[in-house]
Amino acid sequence: MRGLSVLSISVALGLASSVASAGIIQIDQSAFNAGAGLITFSEVPLGSVNPVYTPGLYGGGAGSPTVTFGGYFTGQSAGSTNPSACPTGAAVTGCVLGSPTGPLSIDPNSPTTFTADDASVPSAPILSGSPLYNGSIAILFSTPQVGVGLDGGYFNAVGSTAITAFAADGSIIGSVTNSQIGNEFLGLVTDDGQATIAGLEFSLVGDEPAGFDIDNLEFGVQGQVTVPGGQVPEPSTIALLGTGLMGLMAVGARKLA
Known about the structure:
six-stranded antiparallel sheet; 18% helix; globular; alpha+beta
């Protein structure tokens, strides 16, 4: 019985660990369902600087987040502060250095973002960083999301640009890099289906000769985004697992006493 209890506790600890440690899965645009948020950047005038999107502005329902934009997150710095730390060939204005500090927030001193036209993007207007088509873009959600995606481009090199998801404490959840030339949808979702994406950053990770910007930002929580690969654990399931783990540990303690 003692051996069985220890085994059960080990299994429970393993399950709890798998629930607690999240990563990301790359998704395409079809993963976003009815009710997901959509920002096209046509909702505000051209030239709008660091636009703030309340749910009412983009048609979000109850519980939808307010979305804000800037150049990078607090705790990070521009590539120009240490150009040698940027990827070879990458414009220093599109390279971001360092890790965000928690709680995740837009650095008010970071370069601005603004809406603009781009003849290379059929669905323009777009959102650009500074300078035009060559600056990083940070996106902050007032409440964490399960999945986030956007149209990026126009890419002239494969693997030049990435979207990186961050948790509320500033830790990296995961990233996705462009895999083709032209305009491409880049999307990701948490692999455990939990709403932990507090922010997203669009920046250079390689040489991008002709610049980059974003359009059609999509985001959502459970039910609004499909998580590939199986069922999403409900909060009640996670709570039950925690209760069961505590019970098993208590039984083990009595057995050892």
